[in-house]
Hints:
Mean pLDDT: 95
CATH superfamily of the domain at 2-181 and 222-246 and 280-299: NAD(P)-binding Rossmann-like Domain
Radius of gyration: 19 Å
Shape: globular
Distance between the termini: 36 Å
Oligomer: single chain
Structural class: alpha/beta
Protein name: SDR family oxidoreductase
Strand content: 15-25%
CATH class of the domain at 2-181 and 222-246 and 280-299: Alpha Beta
Organism: Natrarchaeobius chitinivorans
CATH architecture of the domain at 2-181 and 222-246 and 280-299: 3-Layer(aba) Sandwich
Number of helices: 12
Low-confidence stretches: none
InterPro entries: NAD(P)-bd_dom, NAD(P)-bd_dom_sf
Domain NAD(P)-binding: 4-307
Strand order of the largest sheet: 3-2-1-4-5-6-11
Order of helices and strands: EHEHEHEHHEHEEHEEEHEEHEHHH
Pfam family, one: GDP_Man_Dehyd
Amino acid sequence: MTVLVTGGAGFIGSHLAEAFLEEGHRVVTLDVLDPYYDLGIKERNLERCREAAPDRFSFVEGSITDRSLVEDVFETHDPDAVYHQAAQAGVRTSVEKPKKVHEINTTGLVHLLEAAVESDVRRFVNASSSSVYGVPEYLPYDEEHPNTPKSPYGVTKLAAEHYCRVWNEIHDLPTVSLRYFTVYGPRMRPNMAITNFTSRCLNGEAPIIYGDGEQTRDFTYVDDVVEANLALLETDAADGEVLNVGSTGTITIRELAEHVVDVTDADVEPVHEDARAADARHTHADVSKARELIGYEPTTEIRAGVSRFVDWYRDNREWYEPLVRRS
Length: 327
């Protein structure tokens, strides 16, 4: 197959691109290379893909907001499947720049959906987010939980899900939306809590917790996310559906910081600063629907996953840490 991965130079997108290449597929990556964080990480991600399969990997630089570019990519490469990971990430960023987030996360998606219908794409997978849920009425969240997003980012992700549903119903486009729950792992974004905690602890600095630290998160290791996406290339069981992609449990941010301190052997204590606006208080995924429809089974518990990430960070510290510290 030919698989188009939008946002394929980013964290999750590059892991997916590598996985599809390992499976023997052709991969086309479309990415604008927005310097939301240091581009050195994205450039290294692309180089890994080129080295893995130079004859089966193509990179197109540009934005999904450019309709003519999107149409050209589909006409040139004729993808069988689209894995849409491109987005303006960041809950806090969306509060500051809502118009930019709307243009990328909704208008850009519509361009892709229109092109996918014209190209008779066999599978369209949309990366959504647990941010669509907002304030929990109960936990864990199942897919029927009310959606009351607290940020413009969450609003755009919910709108994207509805666009995918409508395109499935009106145009018979085989769409699926995956609601990711805080994905982490090697090459993750520098501005995420686990990266910041690790970087600070390895440099003898106290990890900073925003708020009281009792907020909980369902952190999902990137390998589990990749497996969920790979499964969708082999089945049509989830057409038109929305699925949670979470982990095996939750952890408080305070416990997370303390675990990173322990794993790094840092002689520091976490410190607290004011809570950030629009951050969710708690997240926790019920993954029973994904388990039933696509056989999804998360395998990486948060403490084990963080330990693996710290090991990877140490092994790649020479190139990764300067980029983290600059971001």
